[in-house]
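Quick one, tokens below:
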């Protein structure tokens, strides 16, 4: 079916009008990103039929290469919008490893020409009215061709001589102006979200450039002392969103929002941006800039001068220095760096390897480009955290080397300090050295949620669970809707034996992101420790289904069945894990050791842990805190293993 079909479909309380690009629930509009809307049209039109992932990707992103994870993200957005399953109605079925099927009953009602009155939403500002439906070309109407998004009230301006970095300078100036004495008509902005800059080039291959510029703005703004800036993970969920700004500000808990667009054409780039007060949708500042992307050094000088004029002396020494040292002299190096960050943010082995290629190209072009070395450190560190000992042994030392190279060139890069700390914690087991690096990263960039997140693991390894819980909650402050951070808050509470709090947090995370398998796995473990085995098994089965029979999810479920005394089911899940594993044998993991511990076979549990020790498996840093190891702690072999890993002997988190 064509995405431009004139047919109208009804299912449950919903009415889908592809021609008008409109989805209504009980006659009220349901906002959807353009590609999520397109995916819904394809699935509804093919209702009852299994749509393979490749088929969906080709239908929604014709002629473009798009990672499979992008499709999964848009399906997750659809499920949240449809409240899939919340009210007992199921719309989209996942067929593990294959694709999706729209399973609800659908009625096609033909052409729909009437004009539907849309009432203002509750968060609309006084006097405002809802805009027209998004154009059928996905938002690339006449306004887009002029570099203007009609949804965002940018004024018509002459294009000043400036560029992406100059946007940051003027934003900082605007923020400084807003720092008025308390009691004034407008309160100062103390928290900010930079929404994903829109790519107006019409070329999906340029998404990396818009995403990279967004991340650069977030990184630099986050260095301003006293300003809370929401991290990339949370803001990227608003890419292509049609939510009104007050609603976004409320969801993220921020005072101000920066939004804008990027139009890249050859060696020219045009940035249009505005700063808006979140609660009232009041525009504080707006401007457009056009510049040759090769003039990065001149841009840095210009930014520094703007900061010197507009920012207080207390902020100036920190901000100006970091901006002046953050760029590459070579424009191709900067291009390669942005591509590297784009692929690194995909959080997959393929993404890490592509990121390494682009970061390496950047340092080849500009051997003094500190940020590119930091990017290499990040990519190698996360590649080395994957459960493959051969990859790990090659990647982790390389991550350390790249982090040290970056810091030799620029000691103020928070991400390089954090990556070095990650290697020291996760691979070298130097927990106190890692703590020093994590603290340095956080001191340089208090808004860097990844540093807080990883530091929480370091604190947990050292048995300082109250501090670990507090630290992972700090990570959540600047990344409030990150599924993994919210899940890890629950897991840290679980390790601290605060089971009721952990249960509440895990449920809240699943309510926010129902299809996040890892959250169901953590809830499975919490229920297991509370001896609520039917609930634990149900969550484990859900985690396995959502992950597409992931080996580690299957092993976790087998361990839960072992704790519940259901050995036949345990054996079945182990056999399924074996079928999914290379060589037909489940890998040696911490969960395998836990399973043997649950069966009372301490000898085999320690045999597995010896293999993990030789591989320098990162999971061993949690020996002291994971409740499923509690049955082994009285064994002298356990205490000797703690000593070899460098963990405090005899420590508990009770």
């Amino acid at each position: 079916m064509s995405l431009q079909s004139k047919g109208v479909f009804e299912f449950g309380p919903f009415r889908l009008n592809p021609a008008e690009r409109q989805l209504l629930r009980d006659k009220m509009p349901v906002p959807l990103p353009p590609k999520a809307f397109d995916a819904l049209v394809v699935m509804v039109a093919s209702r009852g039929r299994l749509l393979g992932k490749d088929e969906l990707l080709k239908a929604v992103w014709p002629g473009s290469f798009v990672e499979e994870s992008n499709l999964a993200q848009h399906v997750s957005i659809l499920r949240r919008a449809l409240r899939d399953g919340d009210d007992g109605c199921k719309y989209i079925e996942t067929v593990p490893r294959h694709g999706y099927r729209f399973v609800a009953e659908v009625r096609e009602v033909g052409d729909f020409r009437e004009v539907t009155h849309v009432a203002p939403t509750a968060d609309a500002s006084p006097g405002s009215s809802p805009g027209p439906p998004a154009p059928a070309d996905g938002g690339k109407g006449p306004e887009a061709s002029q570099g203007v998004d009609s949804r965002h009230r940018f004024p018509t301006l002459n294009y000043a001589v400036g560029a992406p970095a100059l946007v940051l300078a003027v934003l900082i100036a605007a923020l400084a102006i807003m720092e008025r004495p308390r009691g004034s008509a407008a309160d100062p902005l103390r928290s900010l979200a930079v929404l994903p800059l829109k790519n107006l080039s019409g070329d999906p291959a340029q998404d990396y450039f818009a995403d990279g510029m967004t991340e650069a703005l977030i990184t630099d703004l986050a260095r301003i002392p006293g300003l809370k800036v929401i991290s990339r993970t949370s803001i990227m969920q608003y890419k292509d969103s049609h939510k009104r700004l007050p609603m976004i500000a409320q969801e993220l808990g921020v005072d101000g929002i920066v939004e804008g667009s990027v139009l890249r054409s050859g060696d020219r780039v045009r940035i249009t941006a505005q700063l808006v007060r979140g609660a009232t949708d009041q525009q504080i500042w707006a401007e457009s800039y056009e510049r040759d992307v090769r003039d990065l050094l001149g841009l840095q000088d210009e930014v520094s001068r703007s900061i010197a004029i507009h920012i207080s002396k207390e902020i100036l020494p920190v901000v100006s220095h970091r901006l002046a040292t953050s760029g590459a002299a070579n424009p191709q190096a900067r291009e390669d760096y942005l591509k590297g960050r784009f692929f690194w943010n995909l959080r997959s082995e393929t993404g890490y390897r592509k990121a390494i290629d682009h970061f390496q190209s950047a340092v080849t072009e500009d051997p003094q480009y500190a940020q590119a070395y930091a990017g290499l450190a990040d990519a190698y560190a996360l590649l080395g955290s994957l459960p493959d000992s051969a990859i790990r042994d090659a990647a982790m030392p390389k991550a350390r080397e790249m982090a040290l190279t970056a810091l030799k060139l620029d000691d103020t890069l928070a991400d390089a300090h954090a990556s070095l700390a990650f290697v020291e914690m996760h691979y070298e087991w130097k927990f106190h050295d890692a703590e020093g690096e994590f603290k340095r990263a956080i001191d340089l960039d208090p808004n860097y949620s990844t540093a807080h997140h990883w530091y929480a693991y370091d604190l947990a390894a050292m048995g300082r669970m109250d501090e670990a819980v507090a630290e992972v909650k700090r990570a959540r402050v600047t990344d409030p809707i990150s599924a993994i951070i919210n899940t890890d808050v629950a897991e840290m509470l679980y390790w601290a034996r605060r089971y009721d709090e952990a249960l509440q947090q895990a449920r809240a995370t699943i309510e926010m992101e129902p299809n996040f398998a890892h959250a169901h796995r953590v809830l499975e473990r919490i229920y297991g420790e509370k001896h609520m085995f039917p609930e634990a098994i149900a969550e484990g089965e859900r985690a396995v289904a959502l992950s597409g029979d992931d080996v580690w999810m299957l092993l976790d479920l087998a361990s839960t069945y072992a704790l519940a005394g259901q050995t036949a089911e345990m054996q079945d899940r182990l056999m399924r894990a074996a079928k999914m594993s290379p060589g037909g044998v489940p890998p040696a993991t911490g969960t395998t050791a836990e399973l043997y511990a649950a069966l009372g076979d301490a000898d085999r549990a320690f045999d597995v842990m010896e293999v993990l020790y030789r591989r320098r498996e990162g999971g061993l840093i949690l020996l002291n805190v994971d409740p499923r190891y509690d049955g082994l702690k009285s064994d002298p072999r356990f205490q000797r293993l703690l000593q070899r890993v460098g963990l405090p002997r005899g420590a508990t988190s009770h």
